[in-house]
Amino acid sequence: MSVDVVALYLEGLSIRSVAEETGHCFSNVRRQLLRAGVELRPSGGRRLEADPLAEYLVGRYRRGESLRALQASTGYGYEFIRARVLAAGAELRDQQGRPRKAVA
What we know:
104 residues, mainly alpha, 6 helices, 54% helix, 0% strand, elongated
């Protein structure tokens, strides 16, 4: 179990996102990471750079696939996919496929 937590965190997910993915609480995930000897990133995380995987995911997203459909077909977690699609510069859509409105 802790190996999954470590792997997700090292893929770039935040502790909170790892907790959501695995169904554990934040403090439990943090404890597991510290026990495994993982050096924790500073609060606020790090800015993701677009990478070949992100470009692949955003291409499929722009052709109409939803984040959930990408999750189902690739096996990556929802937050992992969302972060990479955003890092690659895609504008997210709402559930009807329209661009999301900016929150004031």
